[in-house]
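Figure 3 (text version): structure tokens given as input.
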């Protein structure tokens, strides 16, 4: 015999336990695209407490869309070991080009991140940041549905030692920080420079250099990193996104270890 209200109680009780437990963490990652998910994987693998807020119902960002909805992704030699680590099938196309299923990559990566212990909240977005003593110490969150419906709903806050902006092309966290507090980011202009037109070769190269801290305790990875520092966009080649997430995780992990 199944009781409908018991089903509801099970969902509500377990969700609220997790959301309450997630109000304080080591790292908040804004955005569950390939870069944010990869960062979440490596930080959780190291044993850090990681919370991911993703605006949409379906995590993955631009990953499942492949290139123009042809749901394949291309990755280069350098990032193949990551897909191998996760057991994602890759097919050799030409020297330095491998193809993977966009859907398999998303499904497996998501599963790996959750199994490593990261807490992912879909349908919640970061609308603002917490800045105390000139450093980032958390984000202001709200239901995406309230935003889409245009409802006037005040947000809540979540605290963390570090925040990672993995929000893709819009670099939303860097932008909101710059716009609202006038904070000087660690860029040549002190502001978000904005991404340059498509060039996979240049964009993938510069991406790892752009993956870094942009304000005390705020890091940026993935397409947001090139948007912040004025790097090229690069379309459906995803190796750089994964490597950027991995690099951000390594940098933040080092900081967390040295502060403990
Ligand atoms: O856009 P997205 O996939 O960014 P990424 O991980 O990867 C970029 C590639 O998809 C592609 C590319 C490949 O070469 O150029 O574009 O850098 O994922 C970003 C995620 O962040 C979510 C958004 O819904 C998406 O799933 N997001 C954006 N703003 C917020 C957010 C926010 N303020 N709070 C929470 N989630």
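Below: residues designed for each position.
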């Amino acid at each position: 015999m199944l009781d409908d209200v018991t089903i509801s109680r099970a969902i509500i009780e377990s969700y609220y336990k997790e959301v309450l437990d997630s109000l304080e963490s080591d790292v908040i990652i804004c955005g569950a695209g390939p870069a944010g998910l990869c960062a979440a994987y490596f930080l959780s693998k190291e044993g850090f407490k990681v919370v991911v807020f993703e605006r949409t119902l379906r995590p993955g960002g631009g990953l499942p869309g492949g290139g123009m909805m042809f749901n394949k992704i291309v990755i280069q030699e350098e990032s193949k070991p990551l897909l191998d680590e996760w057991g994602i099938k890759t097919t050799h196309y030409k020297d330095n080009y491998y193809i993977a299923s966009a859907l398999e990559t998303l499904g497996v990566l998501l599963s790996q991140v959750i199994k490593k212990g990261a807490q992912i909240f879909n349908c919640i977005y970061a609308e603002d940041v917490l800045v105390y003593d000139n450093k980032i110490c958390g984000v202001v969150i709200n239901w995406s549905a309230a935003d889409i419906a245009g409802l006037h709903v005040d947000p809540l806050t979540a605290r963390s030692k570090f925040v990672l902006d993995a929000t893709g092309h819009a670099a939303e966290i860097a932008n909101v920080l710059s716009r609202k507090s006038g904070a000087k980011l660690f860029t040549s202009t002190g502001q978000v420079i904005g991404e340059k037109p498509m060039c996979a070769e240049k964009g993938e190269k510069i991406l790892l250099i752009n993956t870094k801290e942009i304000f005390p305790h705020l890091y940026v990875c993935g397409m947001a990193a090139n948007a912040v520092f004025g790097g090229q966009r690069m379309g459906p080649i995803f190796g750089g996104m994964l490597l950027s997430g991995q690099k951000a995780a390594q940098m933040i992990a080092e900081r967390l270890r040295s502060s403990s």
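The radius of gyration is 18 Å.
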